[in-house]
Amino acid sequence: MSRIQTVFQSLQASGRRALIPFITAGDPAPELTVPLMHALVDGGADIIELGVPFSDPMADGPTIQRASERALLNGMSLRKVLALVSDFRATNSDTPVVLMGYANPIEAMGVDRFVAAAGAAGVDGALVVDYPPEECEAFARALKAGGMDPIFLLAPTSTEQRIREVATIGSGYIYYVSLKGVTGSGALDFNDVAARMPQIRQGVGMPVGVGFGIRDAESARRIGEVADAVVIGSRIIEEIENSPRDQAVARVKNFVEGVRAALDQIQGAPR
Amino acid sequence: MQTADKPYRFPDARGHFGPYGGVFVAETLIPALDELNAAYEACRNNPAFMAEFEYELKHYVGRPSPIYHARRMSDALGGAQIYLKREDLNHTGAHKVNNCIGQALVARYMGKPRVIAETGAGQHGVATATVAARYGMECVVYMGAEDVKRQAANVYRMKLLGAKVVPVESGSRTLKDALNEAMRDWVTNIHNTFYIIGTVAGPHPYPMMVRDFQAVIGKECLVQMPEMTGRQPDCVIACVGGGSNAMGIFHPYIDVAGVRLIGVEAYGEGLESGRHAASLTGGTPGVLHGNRTYLLQSDDGQIIETHSISAGLDYPGVGPEHAWLKDSDRAEYVGVTDEEALAAFHNLCHLEGIIPALESSHALAYAAKLAPTLPRDKILLVNLSGRGDKDMHTVAEKSGIQF
């Protein structure tokens, strides 16, 4: 069983929700990435989504684009991101790490080399934003053969047929994008997510995480009522941006603890 | 080397030109692209739609554009005869408007009252603002903040036409960042918004749709060249940035045996200098802006900044169909430097009384290199894709003149 499956099984057994924070590797500085990852775990994260910076992050909003730009200015690259995951694994062998990014850095490295290097570094899954299922069958197969989960997005506009396609090719969990637009966008329609979630969860037969637009403990709790996992990205990047460098790690941990506490108030399985 | 099938039938149903093209976008855009694909299929198979497109091209754009025998230029070069396809005479001054009319009509068919576009130098933005005014649509144009500063006249033109111009402050603040921002607008406002992409790039069906609308250029040439010269040309030459004017004139010639297709990229300060915009001749395959194609990128897959004197060629990717025509050897791709393009610009002004766009000057510069190596009875057809009024500022600056 993969680390991701193990995490969801034990959470489900205790009726808890997974908390999946996102940070961009190399932001605000490469030497802070591993301490930030440990802080996320200490604050109550179950899985870490680690952003691989790309020069043209088309599906992200301004906040995550800024994080990407800072990371690239700091010399971050896919190879260095994998080295950071290795460092993190030196003292943490339980928390799954999912790389989130764009296809081009992976294709530049070569899919086979990427899969081998990611597996060796201790990566558990990859979410490649601009690889929809129909363009990455070979990649998803290679990832699975390497013992990692290909994670896919679903959107409010996804059809029944696409939900089935994603369920066939994906594994680990599904990332449901809770609103139209890009990461860090504004209004989140809870009723819309709640109405859609039973169909998605049943359709994919694996845990469903919800992200895009979750900004605080309260919105996390409300989403947690209906989903298996809550993903928070832009809000954490803002915390990093707005902190003096020497306080970033502590403030991120503090923020994650608040969300964790709110999620743990939820009783029972997702509605 | 792979060979192109005959007859040529690309892309496939999912938008692939061999390994290139495709739909490399986030899930949130998939339904919008499916909807667009279905609408475009319906439109292009609808005789009434095509009749209206042709009517607009004739009466609003002024098509067919003429072909002109550049005799003084040909004589001065002392070799092959140079013929110019005069896209510079179109309404708005370039080939861009052909595609904008086509896409605006698709938008109207889909019931989308708002159109958005990205623009570099502002030509595609002006063409989009023009057709939005023509069809009574709301128009928002994304333009890199750097470009907004450099192209004040075009920004003002767009505003005169009723468009809102949004300066993009992210990334390198140029064309590719404007494209990213337009995509973000589209994904957020899909319900009422149509994204008019200006070149033969982006996710399927854009490369095919833009090519189809621009193919009017080559279709006219197929008829005009035999009328003027008794035969088809030996070479068809066009500049390639994203590649829409080149694809428009190449596509109808792909199945015509014996016609060389030559795309001319921007070598900027020279291919060896690293400061250029030559994706096909200086780049490697990768994935950007929704399609797989040749890209200018670093070893670890980051897109690098490009350079060309011509803003319209200053793009780190290229349409996926050009990538396929290159790999299948049906088209040849070469490049000329800023300096060579400028020389060709001045020559056309002096010898023919035509001020060409700096983009088109790249095609002219390569024709000027090729012509003297060929006998006088050979024919080169050059796509003069736009006029140079917009480039006065850039050219004057190069000559040390301030307005």
Overview of this protein structure:
The complex is a heterodimer of chains A (271) and B (403). With 271 residues, chain A is an alpha/beta fold. Chain A is 49% helix and 14% strand. Chain A has 12 helices and 9 strands. Chain A has a 9-stranded parallel sheet. In chain A, strand 7 (174-177), helix 9 (190-204) and strand 8 form a beta-alpha-beta unit. In chain A, helix 2 (30-43) packs parallel to helix 12. Chain A is globular. The relative contact order of chain A is 0.17. The mean pLDDT of chain A is 94. Chain B has 403 residues and is an alpha/beta fold. Helix content of chain B is 42%, strand content 19%. Chain B has 16 helices and 14 strands. Chain B has helices at 30-44, 47-61, 71-77, 96-110, 123-135, 145-150, 152-160, 175-188, 206-214, 216-229, 244-250, 279-282, 320-327, 338-352, 358-370, 392-398; strands spanning 16-17, 20-24, 67-69, 81-86, 114-119, 138-144, 164-168, 193-195, 235-239, 260-268, 284-288, 290-295, 331-337, 379-384. A 6-stranded mixed sheet of chain B has the order 3-4-14-9-10-13, with helices on both faces. In chain B, strands 1-2-12-11 form a 4-stranded antiparallel sheet. In chain B, helix 4 packs across helix 5 (123-135) and helix 5 packs parallel to helix 7. Chain B starts with 15 loop residues before the first strand and ends in a 5-residue tail after the last helix. The interface between A and B is large, with 43 and 36 residues.
